[in-house]
Design brief:
Layout (H helix, E strand, L loop, with lengths): L1 E2 L21 E2 L2 E6 L4 E7 L2 E2 L17 E12 L2 E8 L3 E2 L6 E6 L7 E9 L5 E4 L5 H5 L1
Antiparallel strand pairs: 1-11, 2-5, 3-4, 4-9, 6-7, 6-8, 6-10, 10-11
Length: 141
Amino acid sequence: MYGVDGPLVGNAFPLRGIPGDDLPWTVESANGWLDTDGHLTVQVKGVVFTDDEEVPANLRGTNDEPTFRVAISCTTEKEDGIARRNVFTEPFPATPEGDARVRTTVELPNPCVAPTAFIVAGTEDKWFAVVGFEDEEEEEE
């Protein structure tokens, strides 16, 4: 997963209608799967604030949210066009180290095209991590 960073931080460039958190985050590891019946399993480790200047020193390398949720964003049909539909899990516990796991079922629209998973705050619709990656080595070249 890709932690919210750079221009994706904040409200300026929401992904699939979900704004990024107000500070940058990083992700140590993430695994998950979603089946066509909406059965969802996600396990994340180290979803924490980055060690960057814009993050207050007391928050760097930590998670300040007691709960996370997963948002699944689908493109679906609406009459003769398409629409985006975001579905959210109930909040589930997250540790100060940014570790969390959830097994649940979500009600997906039919069809659910190009589903995208986000880790979001337990109490507000702001994302910390999204399916994707950044190759740090390639960036340094």
